[in-house]
């Protein structure tokens, strides 16, 4: 397959994905789903794609992204509940909280590599989990933070009732997904994005090309955590609830599973992974408590036989 | 003035003295070879120059400035580039992208989100120029990880060259190569030296390559400087023959 057909293939794939996402409310009920499930897929896909900015395109594995996801959830929830009953205010605070936490923690860990980096991200993530879990008066402890939720957005001329219309909220989420994904794609196609690829490919070479590698990893980390934080705020708004599990390291693991399952070397892979993960979780969990063992089995099979993920399989088929 | 002045550097790893009080002066435009038996400390010596490790004592002066304590990236900014004994490239990117990244970084675009049309044009032109020079133009959309060892090495040298270095350090550029590949790389180095007057220091095992290319040769043995001189002087040096050439002949 020459480069041009490959490029057409990529465009065609992206168009199909966007058409499916845009038309989701029209067909999801016919295939046995429901709109909120579609929203969940898009939110998780944003988180997984944000993680993959760091994992797949910079070559740095974080096992603590749930911390920034959860900070988004709690940031939005606490703001809306206690400070200002506004959806946008909640989102802004949620994203900023994630960004600030990532900025501080990033400075401490950015010089670490590989398993050391992953371990330390887990450790810092668990700090936030235990704060949310224990600080009953503020966070609601292990009961979670309830009695708050997304509110209609008043633009003056028109009102966007994301509170009562799941379809409206879906498009609200899809809008933020589209903007985030467009920004990440643009970054990855830029000279800056190529330095990240270079670090993934060969850190030593990149350093000896004169790139201060730690600084570039730090920027990639900030970008990744910010979009994960945004996904967190949307997730909180979807559930009208903040669960301490959103901060737990096992949630971080789920993001990694989604990215690897779908294919971490492809831009859209984590979206496919998130869709499989969320849908499987939804269907199988109605039949058995042990839905995770099915995901686990599937994950092991994919990693063993198709190390480039589900999208990698499809690509290989297309190429042959 | 010397471009590179290595002043009495020593590197210890615990009780092992890998490099022992070695000095070297490299003049602009010179092609210097560093040779020596295995374990002589050649690669450590190289790592000290390029900033991969810092010396226990001694100084490294590049272009009149003390760079002994500088990080590798900062030495690169001052005009030092290197290749590695085990080729360091971007295996899952194609040849064009490998060179493009190096060219963009060299142009100071590493933090840029957008390039202007003329900047994109310049990057393309320079990348194309390097592709031509390397003889890899026909393979520009091949993944570097799938290329032959020689082509990977040529890619790496071109990436270093993309930085417009004033000093190029080559760590065993022909290691593990067949005759044809060795010949091709030797030609490439010779062209760079003759046509671009590029100053180079190379470590090399292949004596044909060394005596064919080098202006001056420096011999290390057990971490210490054994001899230094023109290829003729080194070939005639008895200490060198005993420690190195003699051993190889026997």
Short description:
The complex is a heterodimer of chains A (320) and B (250). Chain A contains 15 helices and 2 strands. Chain A has helices at 3-22, 24-27, 35-58, 65-83, 87-109, 114-134, 136-139, 166-188, 191-201, 203-207, 213-239, 249-262, 269-287, 291-305, 309-319; strands spanning 153-154, 159-160.
Supply the number of structural domains of chain B: 2
> Judging from the principal axes of the Cα atoms, what is the shape of chain B?
globular
Number of strands of chain A: 2
- Large-scale geometry of chain A: globular
Please state roughly what percent of the residues of chain B sit in beta strands, choosing from under 5%, 5-15%, 15-25%, 25-35%, 35-45% or over 45%. 15-25%
Provide the gyration radius of chain A in Å: 19 Å
Distance N to C terminus of chain A: 8 Å
Oligomeric form of this entry? heterodimer
What does this 3D model show about the protein?
The complex is a heterodimer of chains A (about 325) and B (about 250). Chain A contains 15 helices and 2 strands. Chain A has about 325 residues and is mostly helical. In chain A, strands 1-2 form a two-stranded antiparallel ribbon. Chain A is globular and about 50 Å long. The mean pLDDT of chain A is about 90. Chain B has helices at about 40-50, 70-75, 95-105, 115-135, 150-160, 180-195, 205-215, 230-235, 240-250; strands spanning about 5-15, 15-25, 30-35, 55-60, 65, 80, 165-170, 200-205, 215-220, 225-230. Chain B is globular and about 55 Å long. Chain B has about 250 residues and is α/β, with parallel strands linked by helices. In chain B, about 40% of the residues lie in helices and about 25% in strands. Chain B has 2 domains: about 1-80 and about 165-230, P-loop containing nucleotide triphosphate hydrolases (Rossmann fold); about 90-165, no CATH class. The interface of A and B includes residues 186, 201 and 212 of A.
């Amino acid at each position: 397959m020459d480069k041009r057909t490959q490029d057409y293939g990529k465009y065609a794939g992206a168009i199909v994905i966007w058409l499916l996402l845009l038309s989701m409310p029209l067909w999801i009920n016919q295939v046995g789903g429901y709109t909120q499930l579609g929203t969940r897929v898009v939110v998780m896909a944003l988180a997984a794609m944000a993680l993959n900015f760091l994992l797949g395109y910079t070559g740095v594995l974080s096992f603590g992204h749930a911390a920034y996801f959860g900070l988004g959830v709690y940031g939005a929830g606490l703001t809306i509940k206690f400070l200002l009953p506004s959806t946008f205010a909640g989102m802004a605070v949620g994203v900023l909280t994630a960004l600030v936490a990532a900025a501080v923690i990033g400075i401490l860990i950015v010089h670490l590599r590989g398993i050391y980096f992953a371990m330390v991200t887990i450790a810092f993530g668990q700090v936030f989990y235990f704060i949310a879990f224990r600080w009953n008066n503020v966070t609601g402890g292990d009961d979670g933070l309830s009695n708050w939720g997304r509110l209609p957005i008043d633009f003056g001329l028109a009102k966007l009732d994301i509170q009562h219309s799941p379809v409206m909220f879906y498009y609200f989420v899809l809008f933020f997904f589209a903007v985030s994904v467009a920004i990440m794609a643009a970054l990855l196609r830029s000279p800056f994005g190529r330095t990240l690829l270079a670090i993934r490919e060969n850190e030593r070479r990149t350093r000896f090309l004169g790139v201060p590698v730690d600084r570039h990893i730090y920027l990639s980390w900030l970008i990744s955590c910010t979009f994960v934080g945004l996904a967190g705020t949307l997730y909180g708004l979807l559930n009208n609830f903040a669960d301490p599990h959103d901060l737990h390291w096992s949630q971080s693991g789920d993001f990694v599973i989604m990215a690897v399952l779908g294919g971490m070397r492809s831009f859209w892979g984590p979206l496919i992974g998130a869709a499989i993960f969320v849908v499987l979780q939804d269907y199988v969990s109605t039949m058995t408590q042990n839905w995770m063992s099915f995901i686990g089995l599937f994950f092991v099979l994919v990693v063993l036989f198709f190390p480039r993920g589900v999208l990698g399989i499809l690509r290989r088929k297309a190429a042959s | 003035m010397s471009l590179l002045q290595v002043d009495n550097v020593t590197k210890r790893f615990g009780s092992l003295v890998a490099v022992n009080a070695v000095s070297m002066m490299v003049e602009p435009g010179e092609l210097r070879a560093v040779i020596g038996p295995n374990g002589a400390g050649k690669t450590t010596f190289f790592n000290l120059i390029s900033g991969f490790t810092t010396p226990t004592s001694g100084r490294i002066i590049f272009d009149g400035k003390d760079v002994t304590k500088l990080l590798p990236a900062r030495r690169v900014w001052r005009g030092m580039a290197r290749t590695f004994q085990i080729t360091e490239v971007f295996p899952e990117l194609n040849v064009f992208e490998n060179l493009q990244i190096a060219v963009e970084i060299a142009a100071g675009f590493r933090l840029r989100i957008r390039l202007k049309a003329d900047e994109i044009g310049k990057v393309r032109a320079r990348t194309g120029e390097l592709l031509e020079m390397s003889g890899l133009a026909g393979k520009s959309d091949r993944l570097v990880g799938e290329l032959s060892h020689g082509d990977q090495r040529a890619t790496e040298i071109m990436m270093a060259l993309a930085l417009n270095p004033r000093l190029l350090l080559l760590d065993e550029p022909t290691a593990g190569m067949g005759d044809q590949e060795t010949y091709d790389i030797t030609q490439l180095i010779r062209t760079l030296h003759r046509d671009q007057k590029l100053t180079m220091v190379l470590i090399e095992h292949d004596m044909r390559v060394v005596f064919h290319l080098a202006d001056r040769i420096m011999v290390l043995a057990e971490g210490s400087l054994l001899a230094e001189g023109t290829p003729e002087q080194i070939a005639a040096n008895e200490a060198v023959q005993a420690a190195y050439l003699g051993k190889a002949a026997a």
